[in-house]
Amino acid sequence: MLLSTAVSGAQPSEEARTQAGITALQSIKNSLTPAERKQSSQLVVEKRLRADKGLAGKLPEYRTGLGVSDAGTVAVDIKGAGQSLVDAVKAAGGSVRYASPAGAIRADLPLGAVDTIAGRGDVAEVKAASQAMTWNESAPQDRRQVAAKKSAAAALQVAEGDKAHGNDTARTKYGVTGAGQKVCVLSDGVKSLQASQTAGELPAVDVLPGQAGSGDEGTAMLEIIHDMAPGATLGFATAFTSEQSFADNIRALRTTGKCTIIVDDVSYFDESPFQDGPVAQAVNDVTAAGVLYFSSAGNSGNLTDGTSGYYEGDFRGSSSKISGITGTPHDFDPSGTTQLYNALSPNSVGRYVTLFWSDPWGKATSDYDLFVLNSSGSVVASSEGTQNGTQNPYEIAQVPASGSGFKVAVVKYSGADRFIALNVIRGRFVTSGSLKAFSTNGVTSGHSAAVNAFSVAAAPAAGAFGRALETGDPANPAGPFPGLFTAASKWERFTSDGRRHQFYNPDGSVITPGNVSSTGGATRNKPDITAADGVATSVSGFQPFFGTSAAAPSAAAIAALLKQGKPAATPAEIRNALTSTAIDLGAPGFDPVTGAGVIMTGPALAALGVAPK
């Protein structure tokens, strides 16, 4: 008994662990050099931990989440332009992946050279490279499809959405195939493009020079489009080189590629929910020129199904303190009870957590920080960048890949109370012990929520998604194939919801001067429409193809039929035809999960005034 007591007494309390970790991290923030103030928190902390073993000892379970290669390099995004800067990166031992005239460079830089580059006068920022993901939802493969693909006598794979949307019969009735339209895809890559073409699954595809990318989701998306709009010509460019490259490729697909319809399934983690960033502005440019743009709404869950890992609302400062904190923690609980943490689900391990607040992009004057703690109170991840007038209102941290009992805290280090958005990407906030779960709707954001983009939610066309999103979840819904979607059809439980609150115009001017709280700004009804996922392709890893990554090309293909049916139709007329005839799946009228509902090809063609053949 005495031994047990002695051992127990030697263990730091949860409060002591929290205080030690946060005190150590805030000591870094309080001692930043001028060059470090231009850097993202992950870069600074990684360098400090490697250089100071004493500091590392105070944070034994902490991980920055920064990928450092065996050669000691890190992928970074540099805000700056010019050949002299490119030359400086190379002279410092780095390599440049992409340099845009818009003033953005993606490079691999030795960690030890980050201070040198950040210290230059022509550099405004050096941050850990913004990461991207596609909205494919992996599930156990249908072995029958895999076997069929390997069989020499196998028939071509046809996406089940072709039947579920009534697309096959509409093509025959109205004599449309998408001819005269060029539908172009932005995704990761088209690795097996040639194999799909050899198998007869795809025709020629116009790939922008040097923009084939890596991975194969683009190939699977192209197959869906070709199944549903076989007369359309096809194009592709990768969205994965960098965020600015993604934006540049959107514009290039219109100008160089001559695409009339563009679709993507990509999201960069730092795309602001409150203001159109570089990618959304590129979408604005091409839609203003008449292009129809479709984008995946995302697979981050929704409030209706209890799958949301998103929280937004006005910052509510608490008089209670988190040990070691300089600043004011956010109180998640709107009642009289104080709750300084939001707990994460078991399947949130390894996920990224982002924090945005309603300061203008590139001009944040309020400074907020993000902390991830484990069940013992140790700080295991954080993001504590400096915001003093020239930085972005954004922080990001990664939940460790193993462990349990994780929770997040938001702290206002300095400045004004703002509207905040907290997102555990593809994770979930849950009740855990005394902590209640606080989630909201509104996770659909970034360029998918651009005003004239079609943000596309997902509904299964055929079999149900093959795994539970979290242990104990109810069964996932199945689709109507070989029948049609009806009002009884269900959306995917993982599909992301809206609406999307905006506070700033793309140029940074405030929408409602003097009010960037929940009562200010403007709201966009996103997502716009719903389309089929869970469909067949011949591409390995996408058999079947689930996620809003599959829904967006399904919708784009239907739009190609409408554009052929009435070439002179304006984008507004196409939009009205799709939304006015969509089958309502959720609450009557627009709802924040499925938008106007699931689109149907035949009724949309009729509404557009296309005559049957």
TrEMBL record:
Pfam families: Peptidase_S8 (PF00082)
InterPro entries, sorted: Glr3161-like_dom (IPR034075), Peptidase_S8/S53_dom (IPR000209), Peptidase_S8/S53_dom_sf (IPR036852), Peptidase_S8_Ser-AS (IPR023828), Peptidase_S8_subtilisin-like (IPR050131)
Coiled-coil regions, chain positions: none
Sorted UniProt keywords: Hydrolase, Protease, Serine protease
KW Hydrolase (keyword) present: yes
Domain Peptidase S8/S53: 225-597
Family indicated by similarity: Belongs to the peptidase S8 family.
Protein name: Peptidase S8/S53 domain-containing protein
Protein's organism: Amycolatopsis oliviviridis
